[in-house]
Amino acid sequence: MSATPRLLLGIETSCDETAAAVVEDGRRTLSSVVSSQVELHAEFGGVVPEIAGRAHLARIVPVVRAALAEAGVERPARQLAAVAATTGPGLVGALLVGVASAKALALAWELPFVGVNHLEGHLYASLLEDPTFEPPMVVLLVSGGHTLLVHVAAPGRYRLLGRTIDDAAGEAYDKVARMLGLGYPGGPPLDRLAAIGDPGIVRFPRGLADEPGCDLSFSGLKTSVLRWVRAHPEAAVADVAAAFQEAVVDVLALKLRRAAALVHAPAVCLAGGVAANSALRARVAADAEADGRRCFLPSRAMCTDNAAMVAAAGWWRWRADGATPLDAPADPNLRLRFEAEPVGAAR
Amino acid sequence: MTLLLAIETATPRCSVAVGHEGGLLASFSVDRDRRHVEALAPAVAEISRAAGVVLGDLDGVAVDVGPGLFTGMRVGIATAQALGVALGIGLHPVRSLDVLAHPFRHAGCPVASVVDARRGEVFRSLHQAGAEVVPPGCSTPSALAAELAELGRCLAVGDGAERHRALLATVGGVEVVAAMPSAESALELALAAVAAGAAALDPGQVQALYLRAPDARANFAVLAGGRG
Ligand SMILES: [Zn+2]
After folding, report:
1. Nearest residue on chain B to A122, judged by CA atoms?
2. Do B185 and B84 belong to one domain?
3. Size of interface A-B (CB pairs under 8 A)
4. Which of A1, A157, A191, A234 is deepest in the core (most CB within 10 A)?
5. Residue B107 sits in a domain of what CATH number?
6. Ligand 1 (ion): which residues have CB within 5 A?
7. B123 shares a domain with B66
8. Which CATH number fits domain A7-123+304-321: 3.40.50.300, 3.30.2280.10, 3.10.560.10, 3.30.420.40?
9. Residue ranges of the alpha helices (H) in chain A?
10. Does A298 touch chain B (CB under 8 A)?
11. Does A101 reach chain B within 8 Å, measured CB to CB?
12. Torsion angle of C-alpha atoms A8, A74, B204, A52, degrees rounded to 10
């Protein structure tokens, strides 16, 4: 008899990436296959749910097969411990492709199925890339759908320290980029332009920066950029981008610093799509060094959605709670389970 | 003998069946109004127990690829594909409108299969003595009524016919029959195709039959759980 399997297959289809991965012990990535649909949605300026659902279904089989093959998994029923999939939050018509696939694979291989919260996946990204990185840590999770500050005391033990009270940071990026005619997704081109612009041209509001606590707000910023651009049609796009980006980075970095101090966290890390932003990375790294904290900045591939993080989260979730029932739903509004109510929140 | 599992999720009902050339071993249906992703995997587990079959004994999986309820179709197809990948077996796609018409093949008159397509439209095809005479298409109920008016006596079966019963009843000779496509019929059609020499498809080759372009509006509201 072989030893207890330590490999977990993870599947991610919550938004516009079809992904599958095999991870060992929740820490070591053996394969991570991502088929991005960004090009399918670009012309619409955002993710189109029905297009995403169709693309996931058309791509899931080759993606799962490639993940198993690249990891050298030839006898999944024996080599895998479980099959995990993101059950939410996300687009329901997209989620259910991954959930149905994972359940059926688990059923056929007689393995446990493990439902994973997508956000929990992002929290584990750093642990996959740096084997020496360990909780406790404060994670700033910033993406097109989410902006959260989470204290990870240990795997599976989270406390919510702050969150956006309106738009996600990435949503603000996409909307301002569209306003400036930079296309979709807006983050990368806006980031590049901001690097050559003069942020001193105007000072945009830092939402909730002067409020106590760690909550954030971006809708006022978006509105004031729109108003200012209309009043100053002659302004250089790069300067507007730089001023906008500085406002976002200022407030994200401030709140991360405050959250880390609040719980005396020895380490901080970034996660989510906006974690690829060069200005945010530079600022967070500099702040952490000044404060004497360890800092982890995920690779670009680990910032965006992938299934390795889902497999990692699935590993800890399975060890803590066991299998998820096969009648579990795909839940577009799935909430992360926190240990306590928000600490020091502005609300 | 070809032992098949059949999966039918193209309408609000979710049903599964297991059988071979010798007959049906078990069937099971769940009316949980579109909660296919919750109902299907337990239904597959349940039916293999009821039929006394281990999934590893299956020779193939028959699956309804639509047209119909997009989310239901995707759950059924993703499940069939994953079973095919995991068990190393092929898939036998069948179409919802053929599955729906199958029990009425001896009706002695034309049979219109009509699946509710939402948004005031229907998916429909026309059959005579078990053979397709008009291929699947997306249509308005009034265009369907005009088509049926040409036929004289005929049956209009399915949830689309049921939804537009009042309109179709104004057409002389049309009898509306409330019916859902069943996994038993899907199983019989797939077994008939196997007997006729149809090869199983690799799970990666099976495609959904949508018959309608995606509603291509970026929905920022639903992105609350979205990108990144
Ligand atoms: Zn994400």
Report:
1. B228
2. yes
3. 173
4. A191
5. 3.30.420.40
6. A 143, 305; B 228
7. no
8. 3.30.420.40
9. 38-41, 49-70, 76-79, 92-109, 118-129, 169-179, 187-196, 219-231, 237-262, 278-291, 300-303, 308-321
10. no
11. yes
12. 20
- Same domain? For B188 and B79 the reply is yes
DSSP string for B26-69: EEEEE--TT-HHHHHHHHHHHHHHHHT--GGG--EEEEE--SS-
Contact B44 A104 (CB under 8 A): yes
Residue B114 domain-assigned?
Answer: yes
d(CA B194, CA B213): 31
Q: Which domain holds residue B55?
A: 4-95+181-216
Per residue in A242-282, pLDDT tens?
999 999 999 999 999 999 999 999 999 999 999 999 999 99
User: Would you write out chain B's pLDDT as a tens digit for each of its 228 residues?
Assistant: 999 999 999 999 999 999 999 999 999 998 867 689 999 999 999 999 999 999 999 999 999 999 999 999 999 999 999 999 999 999 999 999 999 999 999 999 999 999 999 999 999 999 998 899 999 999 999 999 999 999 989 999 999 999 999 999 999 899 999 999 999 999 999 999 999 999 999 999 999 999 999 887 655 444 433 445
Give the strand pairing for A113-117 and B90-94.
Answer: unpaired
Interval between CA A13 and ligand 1 midpoint (Å):
10
pLDDT recorded at residue B13: 92
Q: Is residue B115 part of a domain?
A: yes
Q: Which amino acid is at A108?
A: A
User: B56 and B115 in one domain?
Assistant: no
* In chain B, beta strands by DSSP E: 4-8, 14-20, 23-30, 60-64, 90-94, 111-116, 122-128, 131-139, 154-157, 174-177
Model ipTM over 0.90: yes
Over residues A280-322, the pLDDT tens digits come to: 999 999 999 999 999 999 998 899 999 999 999 999 999 999 9
Q: Which of A14, A46, A53 sits opposite B218 (nearest CB)?
A: A46
Number of domains in chain B: 2
Q: Are residues B68 and B9 in the same domain?
A: yes
Q: Do B228 and A327 touch (CB under 8 A)?
A: no
The H helix count followed by the E strand count for chain B is 7, 10
Residues B63 and B127 in one domain: no
Does the distance separating the beta carbons of B219 and A93 come in below 8 Å? no
pTM equals 0.94
Query: How much of chain B is helix, strand and coil, in % rounded to 5?
Result: 40, 25, 35
Residue B228 lies in a domain: no
Query: Would you mind telling me the total number of residues written for chain B in this entry?
Result: 228
